[in-house]
Amino acid sequence: MQYVSTRGQAPAQSFSQILLGGLAPDGGLYLPVEYPKVSHVELDAWRKLPYADLAFEVLKKFATDIPEADLKALAHKTYTADVYRNVRAGEDAAQVTPLRVLEDKDGRKLVLQALSNGPTLAFKDMAMQLLGNLFEYALAKQHAELNIFGATSGDTGSAAEYAMRGKKGIRVFMLSPHKKMSAFQTAQMFSLQDPNIFNIAVEGVFDDCQDMVKAVSNDLEFKARQKIGTVNSINWARVVAQVVYYIRGYLAATTSNEQKVSFTVPSGNFGNICAGHIARMMGVPIAKLVVATNENDVLDEFFRTGVYRVRKSAETFHTTSPSMDISKASNFERFVFDLLGRDASRVRALFHKVETQGGFDLSGKPGSDGDEFGKVAGYGFRSGKSVHADRIATIRDVQDRYGITIDTHTADGIKVAREHVEPGVPMLILETALPAKFNETIREALGRDAKRPAGFERIEDLPQRFEVMPADVAAIKSFIANHTGL
Ligand SMILES: *Cc1c(COP(=O)(O)O)cnc(C)c1O
Predict the structure, then answer these.
(1) Alpha helices, DSSP H only, in 254-387?
(2) Structural domain range at position 330
(3) Considering the entire predicted model, what is its pTM?
């Protein structure tokens, strides 16, 4: 299986060649030359498989240059009941992504798929844990090392640290804004004592952290010498790992391949739902893929009108579902490539227009850039939006009706899912975090604290290990160099 860039000007590469990298050299994103297919015979055979074996079956279609025995061992090391142990009462950790029927009324069925039972209580663990094991495996083969450098305001940084902790050949340098994360998120990251994890609390805001990452990335000589890499959501292996739970959700919610299901996905960078698109393109019987946004509704606007209009950072709202506070979804280009019939030169022109004019228009109206919006529904896509008041109302309603506490992002998903569920087609809502991570809003909605999974009760009291540094690029560079010895 070879991978090509959405912008068409980078050489084709294998899975292992793109594993450790980010963007293609032409600025595009990698996708397989063509999507592997899943037959109905395979789907039937996969119904009974434990999660790790299903992950292996899916991975081997994409990672064709890794020996199958190695892939199988990596899948089994990653997807265990122990890693995904933070289940609710009544859920079975051995299922890895257990389903729970919320409602089944007049044939309209709402089902929650728990993806947040991993070490950091958010769905990013589903892919990041595999990435940690894949990276360690690939680096050992190449006798190489990698220094992951990034900035976080919460979920991504902790998922990366928990995936890379203790891994041979890998160090993580993670910037976060000093005293700006929640006490829970801070404790989660800073309590890690592993010698290969470096938490750097920057005296500034998240944008200062991100600017420092950009400045370091632009110094190509430093980046090469220090073997700097990233683990952001455009990483192809992360997307593949996410394809697995769509197939798992489909199989667990149906009894025959004649049936279809739909998914609603709380979306930010479009990474999660992009995996759903790929599962559908592979032939998994998925009816609708519903994009749920919060107040930052760039994607909802596109899927309603065909107009893609990114917002500037000053126009990006800070909301109570903060992991969706994104106005330029980094994985969206992958879907646009397919929507345009894989015409890389048009993708190049449209995303150049995003840089220069802030967006493009595929509505087909006079003066627009194309009429492909007419094809969007044919790919199953629908969308909806949820704001703070909806979130609060949905958290209360789900607590009252079904007796479970959901987090703010999942609440956005359920609000939008209810607008799109149809008789005879189960609607699976992907649960992207557990409520303990966003306790302030749970208190506002329910007047009490969210329950914490076992082992998280007193994480704020654990000793913390972190460096406080000014927002100074030279200082961070020398910190990295001093700790890598390179
Ligand atoms: C990252 C994240 C999202 C958004 O996922 P994307 O892949 O960026 O669309 C939604 N909810 C939570 C809790 C997250 O951490």
Answers:
(1) 271-281, 298-305, 332-339, 344-357, 373-376
(2) 93-120+237-446
(3) 0.96
